[in-house]
């Protein structure tokens, strides 16, 4: 609930909730790699799809959608079963026989095979986070478990939160799998929504600046903390609730940044 001691919170919370009601809909998802999670009812399949779709979510959106679709399409309707049948990462080579910007096919195969190995051993990828305190610790535990299983020190697919970057793609995947509403399909219970951190891209950075939640220019872990804390003051139970709705403005061609200002009844223009 909003802090009643902050006179600015109630009207802002109401505006954001109105934005959520209008735009947090599946009709506004495309083009977004999140769309690739919807066909999977099985949690194991959804975990594989979430790792693939989020970790390749950098670069031009057309390239992202093409390559995520190519990767998941090559693994068939049950990607978890496809990977279970692989005896080593090299067996997944046919599905990962391309490069996505800085991510070679060999790295894709190693990471996805590692996720499958964790699923076989623990029942679900989320188990590596169970018992963690807070989103930062959970994110680090998840990355460390996958990299350890993959035999990698670092990965362009799963950057470690401890290195200070915003880790937008990692936080995006956690939002998809932890939250459950019309847009986020959910499925995980090892981490509560209150512990999530905002997936900080250029659109959320502008929104956070506009809303007075940060004045930092660098999109790093510190800025993620500041913006998340700003939303946590409004929704302690669900600080990333408004991420999808806010980031439609600038992503969807029919929704401009000036439209966002009008939606929130705020003066001025978003710079940049």
Short description:
The protein has 2 domains: 1-29 and 198-272; 31-192.
Describe the structure.
- The chain has 272 residues and is mainly alpha-helical.
- It contains eleven helices and no strands.
- Helix 2 runs antiparallel to helix 5.
- The relative contact order is 0.13.
Topology (SSEs and partners):
Elements: H1 9-23, H2 43-55, H3 61-75, H4 79-84, H5 105-122, H6 135-150, H7 168-178, H8 202-210, H9 221-234, H10 243-247, H11 257-263
Helix pairs in contact: 2-5, 2-7, 5-6
End-to-end Cα distance: 32 Å
The count of strands amounts to 0
What oligomeric assembly is this protein in? single chain
Number of helices: 11
Task: Count structural domains.
Answer: 2
Structural classification: mainly alpha
Which spans of ≥5 residues are poorly predicted at pLDDT below 50? Answer: 1-9
Rg calculated over all Cα atoms: 18 Å
- The whole-number mean of residue pLDDT values reads 91
The helicity comes to: 40-55%
β-strand percent reads under 5%
Order of helices and strands: HHHHHHHHHHH
Major sheet characteristics: none
Envelope shape: globular
């Amino acid at each position: 609930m909003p802090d009643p001691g902050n006179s600015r919170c109630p009207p802002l919370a109401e505006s954001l909730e109105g934005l959520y009601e209008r735009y947090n809909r599946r009709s506004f998802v495309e083009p977004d790699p999140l769309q690739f999670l919807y066909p999977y009812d099985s949690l194991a399949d959804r975990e594989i799809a979430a790792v693939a779709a989020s970790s390749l979510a950098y670069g031009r959106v057309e390239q992202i959608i093409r390559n995520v679709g190519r990767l998941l399409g090559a693994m068939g309707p049950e990607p978890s079963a496809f990977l279970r049948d692989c005896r080593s990462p090299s067996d997944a080579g046919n599905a990962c026989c391309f490069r996505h910007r800085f991510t070679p096919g060999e790295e894709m195969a190693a990471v996805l095979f590692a996720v499958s190995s964790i699923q076989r051993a623990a029942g679900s990828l989320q188990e590596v986070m169970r018992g963690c305190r807070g989103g930062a610790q959970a994110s680090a535990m998840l990355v460390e478990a996958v990299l350890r299983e993959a035999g990698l020190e670092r990965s362009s697919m799963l950057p470690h939160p401890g290195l200070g970057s915003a880790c937008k793609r990692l936080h995006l995947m956690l939002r998809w799998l932890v939250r459950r509403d019309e847009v986020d399909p959910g499925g995980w219970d090892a981490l509560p929504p209150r512990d999530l951190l905002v997936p900080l891209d250029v659109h959320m950075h502008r929104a956070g600046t506009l809303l007075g939640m940060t004045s930092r220019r660098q999109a790093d872990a510190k800025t993620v903390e500041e913006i998340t804390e700003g939303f946590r003051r409004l929704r302690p139970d669900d600080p990333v609730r408004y991420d999808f709705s806010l980031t439609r403005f600038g992503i969807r061609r029919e929704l401009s940044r000036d439209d966002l200002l009008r939606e929130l009844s705020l003066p001025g223009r978003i710079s940049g």
